[in-house]
Amino acid sequence: MKLAILSDFHLGYERFREDAYRQAEEALDAASKAADVLLIPGDLFDGRAPKPDVLAEAINLFRNLSRREWSAKVTSVESANKQYTHVPLIAIPGNHDTRVQGSENAVTLLGLAGLLVDATDGRITVEKGDEKVVVYGIGGVADDKFLDEIKKQGPKPCVGCFNVFMFHQSAFELSPISDDFIHLEELPEGFDLYIDGHIHNRVEKKVHGKPFLIPGSTVLTQLKSVEQEEKGFYVYDTISNTYSFHKIRSRKFSLVTIDASGKSQGDLIESIRSGIDKAVSNGGEKPIVKVEIVGTLNKGVRTIDLNLLGMAKGYGDKAIVEISKPNLEGIEATDEIAALREGSLENMSVKDYGLGIFLDKLKDSKYDLGISATELFELLSPDTNKDKAIKKIIEELFPEA
Q1: What is the number of alpha carbons within 13 Å of residue 3 lying toward its C-beta?
Q2: What is the Cα–Cα distance from 266 to 3, expressed in whole angstroms?
Q3: How far apart are CA 17 and CA 15, in angstroms?
Q4: Where are the domains positioned within the chain?
Q5: For the chain, which residues score pLDDT lower than 70?
Q6: How far is C-alpha 161 from the chain's CA centre?
Q7: Helix (H, G, I), strand (E, B) or coil at 212
Q8: By C-alpha distance, which of 90, 95, 96 is closest to 111?
Q9: CATH architecture for segment(s) 2-247
């Protein structure tokens, strides 16, 4: 059986809204032609409460897929979620899809509509002829609770089947910013294939001697150096135990680094323009170019005089250009900031970085509210209903009130 692994569509991502939809559509279409089963380890949506038009986009994508003829079919669903389709489109929610505990998420809604199979905390069996593939999914779990959830559920492979463990989490080996992140060796043993989402660049490793794959996102979101690679999905052949990466058409991204040290204002402006021009000429149709200015500005050279915003806007018809400001003088760089600048934490999103700091600070204060620290972080996030967040926090702080 051939399994397509594609992830992190981030439908509704405002900055590149059209790219998110178009590239998810192309990935799903190509994957459905190349494979018997589609496995999606999370972050189908960019927000936890997608707007109706974003939900409509997802419904349109999966409705078209569900109408196709599939050689494999889902024959068993062992989870809290009922089975509403036999079509082998199997997904779990990611951190962007998941809402506060007790609330439905958009992936679950697509499952209820019969457009995919929600594998959250469940075991899904897919059959094609005499072959059986079993997918065990754990989705929508706070990073600091994931290992506990694994121990609680005790996922075990099915004898005589090809077994896949699918999840959507940070891993310490990929984002070494918090001791709460699971170590790959702590994943359950005995599975034939381990697949993860969340990380937006491709990862190929081994876990317990078996392949561990992350396909990366289908849309550019973080503008990091590792995202300069082409987008796409994996196809894994369960008979030959081999896999290949299939590219999709995606907007080309280039990261241009300019060292400001020793440059006059005119020379620095010329270096920035030259770097952008080169990236644009090699970038295809309206590429994305991010310019990072490093080093120390010469005395007398001011950021405001460089007119970085105006320079970026000047390329509006040729490219999408973002120019980061030079590092401000007088700010002491901590080890974490230094690591970010050096690119040693490339797999880390801004949210993950903030979450790591948040968890460390709570530990220092001997936090104990009776709810997950990660859930508290989500309650305080910008896309959460503030009234509900405040109400829940007050209830936890003052249980007798």
Answers
A1: 33
A2: 54
A3: 6
A4: 2-247, 253-331, 350-397
A5: 99-103, 325-401
A6: 29
A7: strand
A8: 90
A9: 4-Layer Sandwich (3.60)
